[in-house]
Amino acid sequence: MIISPSIRVATLAFAGAATLHAMCPTLAAERGNPVQRFQLERFVIGGSGGWDFLTFDSVGNRLFVTRGERVQVWDVATHAVAGEIVDTPGVHGVALAHELNRGFTSNGRANSVSVFLLDDLKTLATIAIAGENPDAILYAPWSSGSTPSMAAATTSRSSTP
Questions:
Q1: Do residues 11 and 151 touch, judged by C-beta distance below 8 A?
Q2: Is 22 domain-assigned?
């Protein structure tokens, strides 16, 4: 499989939780930025295994639920599992790139990122990364003067003698 050279896979090492504070809606509200929260619908997601990140696909009306070794993909309209992305050891997060018909998973135990098709959820490639235990993952679409990029945040581990 050929991966477009315009997609860069990068790892980020977060030194501390302070980096993530900018993404927290509670802090946005404390800074005077209004945050709207509302519940449209509620349904129970059962099945074996816990879950980590949830990713909502507003285009496909699907919910991606990471379940440790796989990602369950739920059809929000029918409240049923629409498919699964398998062989994702230690999966934490999912990033979506609709203009490429691609999705990405961060596979913590495998130190890898899986690339899959959004239309049929089939895995195209698994890419080993230099960082350890990739966790959060995001995709930044192309904008004027830039190229698309995807980043998987990894945990930093240091050892002292």
A1: yes
A2: no
